[in-house]
Amino acid sequence: MAALLVLAVALATASAAAAANGGFTPQFAHSPNTHNTNTVYYDGADFARQIGMLPPRDSALDRGVLTLFNTGTRLRQRFTASRSKA
């Protein structure tokens, strides 16, 4: 149960890292060989499922983790919006 709580907190705080270019957005390739460059997008959640750090997709536990993550995101957005109006 403690591991689920740690996972939920980690997922809830991870959205800040994904904002702007927090390491997830690929940079434009500035190279004379740009036409030979491939862009790869990595699915971190799928990898976490493969190594057992996240529950299987569409399981009851997965839906619960997603609900916690989405609730945390909504609360953070409301808090940010209310602070910007004040």
Structure commentary:
Helices cover 58% and strands 0% of the residues. The protein is mostly helical and 86 residues long. It has a domain at 1-14 and 55-86. Helix 1 crosses helix 3 (60-85).
List keywords for this structure.
86 residues; mainly alpha
What's the structural blueprint in terms of helices and strands?
Elements (H helix, E strand, L loop, with lengths): L1 H17 L25 H7 L9 H26 L1
Helix pairs in contact: 1-3
Strand content: under 5%
Tally of strands: 0
Shape by Cα distribution: flat
Low-confidence stretches: none
Task: Provide the helix percentage.
Answer: 55-70%
Radius of gyration: 17 Å
> In angstroms, what separates the terminal alpha carbons?
38 Å
Summarize it:
The chain has 86 residues and is an all-alpha fold.
